[in-house]
Amino acid sequence: MKILFVVVIVLYAASVALQFAGAAFKKDKLLKASWLVFVAAFAVQSVFFVARGVAAKRLPLSNQFEFSFAFAWGVALMLIILRSRLKADWLSVAAMPMALLILTYAALQPMEIRELMPALRSAWFGVHIGSAVLSYASFVIAGSIGLRYVLMEKKHREEDQKALRQMDYLSYRLVAFGFLFLTIVILSGAIWAEQAWSAFWTWDPKEVWALITWIIYAVYLHLRLRKKHSGVKMAWFLIIAVPVVFFTFAGVNTLLPGLHSYG
To answer: Where are the domains of the chain?
Structure first.
């Protein structure tokens, strides 16, 4: 399993290196090779994900290593779907490094397979944590697109305007998608908490920061839908919001231990 995990990281690192080399030297062959390696990395990662689930005899989402691995898998899955449907090759340079970054964090976590805590043995387990994977992945890709938007917008090239509009709208749709699933995370977590600890809300640090993240993206959607804001200001909003997602994902577990410290 450890060898398979190393293969996954090496393939993702190779795809990112090829992507940046291809973009820097404007070599289409390198960009195509990067994409093929990335898809291969995702396939191997999927095999690892399934194999770990079989070995653990449960969904492999119960600790920080497993969630980080699933988080990176979710980012890669969304990138593959979006690029295939939209024919937007520029998404690769925006999102590929994020999958590698999250996997690198996973590599720093203990990989041992452990039994589920009694509180986690619930039908809500997959719904709650699976929704978090989709939500966080959406927010991270939206933030990556926001960063690319800002870098392109500074050049003020007329031929980039269509691409900028596509980025702006796609990032908005990703946030809307992620916001929906984050809402499911919070609601399912509340129901699950009532069943496990007899309280819908305990002001656990993870709960508080999930709510803070939800409020931040609710503000973004309000500005988009009610105030009709768009463009570079909203791109900066998404960039600044990503560290909050990462703190909710990893920082809380490290700095603010609580009921969710196991994962």
So the answer is: 1-111, 120-263
| CB proximity list for 142: less than 8 A, separation 6 or greater | 171, 174, 175, 178, 238
Dihedral angle, C-alpha 248, 172, 12, 102, nearest 10 °: 0
Query: In this predicted structure, what is the pLDDT of residue 160?
Result: 79
Element (H, E) at 5: helix 2-25
- Residue 32, token pair as written in the block: 């195509």
CATH number 1.10.40 is the correct assignment for the domain at 120-263: no
Q: Are 241 and 215 in contact (CB under 8 A)?
A: no
CA dihedral 171, 173, 178, 183 (to 10 degrees): 140
Regions of the chain short of the pLDDT cut 70: 258-263
Tokens coding 124: 């809500």
Q: Report yes or no: 60 and 51 within 8 Å, Cβ to Cβ.
A: no
144 neighbors 94 (Cβ within 8 angstroms): yes
Give the separation between CA 105 and CA 249, rounded to whole angstroms. 11
Position of tokens 């509009």?
Answer: 165
Q: How far is CA 37 from CA 11, 13, 67, 213, in A?
A: 6, 9, 23, 33
Output the pLDDT for position 263: 47
CA distance linking residue 125 with residue 198, whole number of Å: 17
Q: Which tokens sit at 167?
A: 């980025």
Q: Per residue in 194-220, pLDDT tens?
A: 887 788 888 889 999 999 999 999 999
